[in-house]
Amino acid sequence: LTYYLLVVVSFTGLSTLLGLTESVDAREIGEKDQAAVIASGKEGDDAINLSPLLRSIRDPANIAVSIDALKYVAKHSNVDKLSDFRIVRRFEYDFRLIGINVIMIHMASPAQEGGTRPLHLIEVYQVRNPVLRSISRVILTCFQSVWPSIESF
């Protein structure tokens, strides 16, 4: 329900209905080809390189999953090492109506009892519209005042 509320409030659904959403990338990564989150280096090193799949195709310098976001997901998923995550699919969209770019990364953590692998979603937004950027900062500040555990990366 929360997701659908976000689609309505953010106008991403309207952007799509009007044909003003560009699908930049949408791919499923087969189980044998699933990419590690860490491309090179060791956890804790300053020279760690994250997988290029965690970066935007269009704007890799400005739209990317941060190491802090990955650590947050690991902490709340009881995953000891970031290298245990596997990227299973990714999406990237440009919602031109409202001036928002987004990448969505689906990651699987190690198998739990019974062999199931929990799936985690990280979304990274770039708000190009200056009015929406101001509004989103106010909303984030309000949420953080009510729920201090909400982090911004």
Give structural notes:
The protein is α+β, with helices and mostly antiparallel strands. 28% of the residues lie in helices and 28% in strands. It contains four helices and seven strands; from the N terminus they run ααββββαβββα. The strands form two sheets. Strands 1, 2, 5, 6 and 7 form a five-stranded antiparallel beta sheet that branches. Strands 3-4 form a two-stranded antiparallel sheet. Strand 5 and strand 6 form a beta hairpin. The radius of gyration is 16 Å and the shape is globular. It starts with a helix and ends in a 7-residue tail after the last helix.
Order of helices and strands: HHEEEEHEEEH
Largest sheet: 5 strands, antiparallel
Overall radius of gyration: 16 Å
Indicate the percent of residues in helices: 25-40%
Give the class from helix and strand content and strand pairing: alpha+beta
Stretches where pLDDT is under 50 for at least 5 consecutive residues are none
Number of helices: 4
For the record, give the distance between the C-alpha atoms at the N and C termini, rounded to a whole number: 24 Å
Mean pLDDT across every amino acid position = 84
DSSP strand content: 25-35%
- General shape: globular
Please report the total strand number as a whole number. 7
